[in-house]
Amino acid sequence: MKVVIDAINDRISGKVPLLRKRSSRWPTVRKDFLIKNNSCAACGQIDHLQVHHIEPFHLNPSLELDESNLITLCEDEYLCHLHIGHLGSFKDKNPNVRIDAANNLIKHQKSE
User: Fold this and answer.
1) Residue 47 gets which letter from DSSP?
2) pLDDT at residue 44 above 80?
3) pLDDT at position 13, please?
4) Could you identify which of 47, 63, 105, 108 might form a hypothetical disulfide with 69, taking C-beta atoms 3.0 to 4.6 angstroms apart as the criterion?
5) Strand, helix or coil for residue 12
6) Are the C-beta atoms of residues 82 and 63 closer than 8 Å to each other?
7) What pairs with residue 71 in β-bridges?
8) Mean pLDDT over each residue of the chain, to the nearest integer
9) Is-contact 74 42, C-beta < 8 A?
10) Which secondary structure element, helix H or strand E, spans residue 26, and what is its range?
11) 22-31 b/e with 16+ CB inside 10 Å = b?
């Protein structure tokens, strides 16, 4: 019982963000974004694409549908979503994801 009370107190105090529901428009925004941005920004792959929020949804839900806050990254063999978008841990965020993705794409293209 103490664990539950501590969890509630952490949410109330702001230590743990409240879970927020995605906008009903998110599936359409995601689909349209992938049509326009149909390859991984970090390696060029076209399979297993994810739309990554540069400023995470749980930290800033007001940017959920803002295309300037989105980038396409793959979950294919290079795992760019994890490595470039989250610096190797889904608990982290990469504020330099656009620059890192562009630099990685250049390296990837040169190695082909």
Assistant:
1) S
2) yes
3) 53
4) 63
5) helix
6) no
7) 52
8) 87
9) yes
10) helix 26-36
11) eeeeeeebbe
